[in-house]
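Quick sanity check, diguanylate cyclase:
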Amino acid sequence: MNSPQIATSQTVPQQQQSVHGSYNMGSSQILRELIAFSAESDEIALETRHADEIDQVICRKHLRKLLTALQARDAATLSHCRRVAFLAKGIATNLGWEGIHLKRLEVAALLHDIGKIGVPDHIIFKPGKLTSDEIELMSHYHHIGLDVLQACRTDHEVLTILSQTRFHFSGATNGYQCIGSDVHQGARILAIADAYDSLATDQVYRAGKKHEEIMSILMGAAGTQFDGNIICALSRWEQTERDTFHEAIQEVNQNFQPKPLTEQEISEANLISNIFSYLFQIESLYDGFYIVNADFQFVLFSPGLEQLTEIRAFDILETAWTNHSLPITNQEGTSLASSEHTMNRVIASGKSMTTELMLKRPDGRLIQIEVQSVPMFGEDGRLVGVAEIFRDLSRSLKRPQEFNELKMAASQDALTSVANRGELETQLAILLNQASQNQNAAPLSIIFIDADHFKNINDTYGHAVGDEVLIELARLFQHETYSGELVGRYGGEEFVILCPETDLDHARLKAERLRLAVNNLKLSNLNNNRITASFGVAQLEPGDSLESLFHRADNALYQAKETGRNRVCSLTCDEQMSGAAPDIVEPAQPNVGKMVFESSFSALISSDIVVYKLGGFVNDNDARLTEVNPNRAVMRLGKAGLLPFWGKTDDRRPIEVELVFDNATKKSTSASRHATPRVEVMIRMTPLGWIKQPDVFQQRATRVFRLLKDYFVAD
């Protein structure tokens, strides 16, 4: 295999032209600089025992150098990063973040575009929209930034936030492995802050947009690309502190004025620019790489290599390299002897080498790879580290961006952007396989959903309106489901939700909550007429196959429709075999036309935080608590006038709100996921005083319900 030997001390990477000038460095020297970053971070950490919050997150010296290099490269990008940091910090503060976690998010926001230092001029400064090829090249900057931040020993939470910032809330961009709140909340906050500032800022090809238009665009992507609850938190912040909010953003711009750089800063900026430019070449040409230091500790494990090996950098960084660190075999699939490992061979010879080997994937499949191994020596001739660079020889497609887009298109429903039938079946097959290999596997349930009388909607309002109804239903299901649960369109007006770690009883309750949410959904295209849906629920039982589980849930759905629609029905294997009546959750009377509002949501907080969230809501909304205990609270919102009639504004429309709290912490048996604290909150609202129009009350109650969801960080 003839391939460019880029990682040798004789090779000099092509340099971008810097406004301050630049100097050439050999690639081996550049890789040594990354090891030096790591060593310097360790030394400073030992010297600064009483470090402040910044030094706990990233070495302050490295942070200053990186931001200075970004200013030298493109001051506008640094200004954007500062505004994004302000927005992210403000949103997080409104969501209850504080202390070291808030500082980590702020640092992540400041550094989220740091990889752009390595992007060539003709791409980063192009006066117009990028082509697909340029977008593909531009996408590498994200990995480059993570490469350097790993070498700087940056806090793991910062790396996690940055690595997940581009994950869509729906899970579509990461193979549905991280769905909803499985994505780190900091990453979800940063994604929205970044999008907000990008839309608000003038671009070469368009003018910056106004706040109202930006919020409309963000809400249009809620549930798919972005977390709708965080968008609501941003909206609430802007509404509460409107003048301060916009003035503060302007102040961030005014306070940041690019300063003249000293000769030392110019030299440091050019060194960092060389490093980023070289990493851009590696990320463009190869699939991943790692670096170990003289003690054989991993100091860098690139995101590309994470994807290739399915080994998390978090699990391997700062651990010692061994013969078994990576699942590499010979061409026959046999484990390598110690003398066959490229790491040991280049250390023994002191020379770089390229070898073709096999990499064993977690599913047992072998793929052919090329490994370039580069030993690095200091000026005194001592070994300072080794880099190994990987190329996947089995990948025929040269443009991974297009591959990812095709993969997304193949797994998504074209209309609703949720998973399609094929992806649902693929993900369920994976879950069934995991369950079959674990005797103590967590329960798994599925929910089948069918929109009632959907043909009448198409016949009455037209297929375009019918499509809008399906889009709104998909969006609602994504808003109302927990993290890890996959929403998909099975076909026509049928949806399916896969619910890992959920038994039948909890799945029934979840389905009933979704049924109520559908009942409360108002669609302007239907002249505000409401729609209903029927639900069928089944749990995985011993001996189940993909087909039998789907079939049982479908039968339960059929029973729900046959017994009157707009209800939840569950079915077990025994009930199906014996022909016994299925378990039906009888629907409560809908709220339409009634002076009562009932609903529920799942709050992504631990039970001991509930009282603080409730106190914040009471203080901010001038409410009055009339009863409170660990599991229940009753409060009153709004005040009556001299007469008990409702007024024209919400503050003159008093209501009583009852909240019942049920600790519903979701436990995880997967090593890759942590337990997600959550509390199920049941809401019941009734009007106080005299009111004749039920719709006016329902609208008032709906607004309060949404506000409560924002405060409690509802899933």
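Posting the structure with no commentary besides this: The CA atoms of residues 266 and 383 lie 29 Å apart.
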